[in-house]
Amino acid sequence: MNDNYIIKTTGLEHRHTKGVKTLTDINLAVKKGEIYGFLGPNGAGKTTTLRLLLGLSKLQTGKIEIFGQEFGTNRIEILKKIGSLIETPSLYGHLRANENLEVYRELYGASKARLTEVLKIVGLDKTGSKKVKQFSLGMKQRLSVALALLPNPELLILDEPANGLDPTGIIELRELVKKLNKEEGMTILMSSHQLSEIEKMVSHVGIISKGEIIFQGSLHALGQLQKKQSSVLIHTSDDQLAMDVLKAYTPEYIGHAISIAYQDEQEIAKMSRALHEKQLDIYLLHPQQNNLEQLFMDLTTQHA
Amino acid sequence: MSLAISLRSEFLKTKRSPSWILTLVMAAFVPLFMLLVIKESHDGHLSDDIAKISKEGWNFYFYQGIGMISFLFLPMFVILISTLLPQIEYRNHTWKQVFASPQSLGKLYLSKFLVFQFFILVFLIASLLLIGISCVFSGMLNPKFNYNSHALDWQKLLAITSKTYIAILALSTIQFWMGLRFKSFLLPMGVGVLCYILGIINMVGYHVVDADKYFYTFSGFIFIKQNAAKVPYVLWSSAAYATVILLLGFLDFSRAKER
């Protein structure tokens, strides 16, 4: 396999105990140094995939390779280099922030200095004797991030890390993720159900819907797809004639108007001129430029 | 990664947890109860026990205490603590983080079992210490018992306590398995209490199965004088049951499809 891949899954399939298929042919490919956004609506299969990557769900079909090693046979070696936050914060409410990290410190071979450092990174170094059950959800989430950072991991897996964070917390998390990726060289796989939440920090995106990957590639490639998916709505005094005039653009009549995909604005001008030459009155000429969020919605809705 | 690291991690989780309070409170029950019931006079009449107790006061007091513990309080404590300890993970939703940490399932399972056994030993030691304190107070309140006339037979006490611990091993192991297995604490607790009550009925009243094979009441069984000859067999059985159940429990623990 290509050594460049930190995560590579082949043909992952998963069924819940009741036989319901939750994942179909998942081929995830995350390269070293990427910030990979794993996107999908709620219930699409994000958490199930991440749970499989961490060995929390038993592998049924397919293959998981992390750091170039097969997960099943190298579980402990691999987990030593992974920091994770899955679903809700996993913390001991009766313990303090530093005690929660102390539970895992030696398991990861981390020093006491590292423990203090990660608490500082997430701004929880001054919580004193306050027990975690007295923390706000945002504080718990930050402590979970500290726990994920404790082993100074090569790979950070964060499942919906922005849950429970206020807008400032989300911005801080964004900066932290970028910094860890840039300065520490961490590869980061983070899931979210909102593209807008992570599009400012990820370099690559995988979109999952109904247990299937429907897009995987760089953010740039997603941007190209966005352009391809842009369309213009046209309504004229004779839409039937307009369809004939513009048939080279493969128009589609959607009930109240004609929808035509376009690449750039020059094309819209050409269409307008063609209609004008045929003496058609133009009542509506509305370019619909998809933003990434709309594209994400369209992709997942189309697939559903 | 050594077992000691997993063990330290498991011990840290019990810090400030209700497990410690339960252990100490339950260990204090019998010594307090004894202080209330072992009196030199009842309703103005001198107790019939004065002659018996004054012969070997300390030994009598400790034997009575450890007997009550073995019959009732130790099994109940084991059933309660075996459900309370795994609840630290269930209640805090921390199993997933534990399983995503780099430790073998064997070491994780064993370290949880050892921490559980540690609490049983703490309960026994705390019970003995508190019985000792209770005996001192009993001596002050009941001078006719004359506890100081004879010294405590430490060796005998140690032997009885060790046998009690071995006798409870089988029950503790199956309760440990159930405590880990079920998210709800009610199921292992209910099953444990029911099996214990049925065992007591079987042992002292309506005989259905041989009591020397029914491990839920082994710790009480060894305190009945008529059973003296069967005690070695029961202790070996308890250890054998514990070993088999521990292995079966691990197979179940390591093969879980979802964690």
What does this structure look like?
Chain A: GO terms for molecular function: ATP binding; ATP hydrolysis activity. Chain A: Belongs to the ABC transporter superfamily. Chain A: InterPro entries: AAA+_ATPase (IPR003593), ABC_transporter-like_ATP-bd (IPR003439), ABC_transporter-like_CS (IPR017871), P-loop_NTPase (IPR027417). The complex is a heterodimer of chains A (304) and B (259). Chain A has 304 residues and is an alpha/beta fold. Chain A is 36% helix and 26% strand. Chain A folds into three domains: 1-81 and 153-217, Rossmann fold, CATH 3.40.50.300; 94-151; 231-288. In chain A, strands 7-8-9-4-10-11 form a six-stranded mixed sheet, with helices on both faces. In chain A, strands 1, 2, 3, 5 and 6 form a five-stranded antiparallel sheet that branches. Chain A has a four-stranded antiparallel sheet with strand order 13-14-12-15. With 259 residues, chain B is mainly α. Chain B has one domain (3-254). In chain B, helix 6 (105-141) crosses helix 7. At the A-B interface, helix 2 and helix 3 of A face helix 1, helix 4 and helix 5 of B.
Compact overview of the structure:
The complex is a heterodimer of chains A (304) and B (259). Chain A is an alpha/beta fold and 304 residues long.
Any key phrases for this structure?
heterodimer; A: 304 residues; alpha/beta; Rossmann fold; 3 domains; 5-stranded antiparallel sheet; 15 strands; 26% strand; B: mainly alpha; 10 helices
CATH class of the largest domain in chain A: Alpha Beta
Number of strands of chain A: 15
**CATH fold node name of the largest domain in chain A:** Rossmann fold
Q: Biggest interface between protein chains, with counts per chain? A: A-B, 33 and 29 residues
Share in helix of chain A: 25-40%
**Averaged pLDDT of chain B:** 93
Rg result of chain A: 24 Å
- The count of strands of chain B amounts to 2
* Secondary-structure class of chain B: mainly alpha
N/C terminus separation of chain B: 22 Å
What percent strand of chain A?
25-35%
**Biggest sheet, spatial arrangement of strands of chain A:** 7-8-9-4-10-11
Structural class based on helices, strands and sheet pairing of chain A? alpha/beta
Poorly predicted ranges of chain A: none
Count of separate structural domains of chain A:
3
Mean pLDDT of chain A: 89
Which strand order spans the largest sheet of chain B, edge to edge or round the barrel?
1-2
| N to C succession of SSEs of chain B | HHEEHHHHHHHH
Largest sheet of chain A: 6 strands, mixed
The whole-angstrom Rg of chain B is 20 Å
Detail the poorly predicted runs of chain B. none
Protein name (chain A): ATP-binding cassette domain-containing protein
Pfam families (chain A): ABC_tran
GO molecular function, one term (chain A): ATP binding
Family (chain A): Belongs to the ABC transporter superfamily.
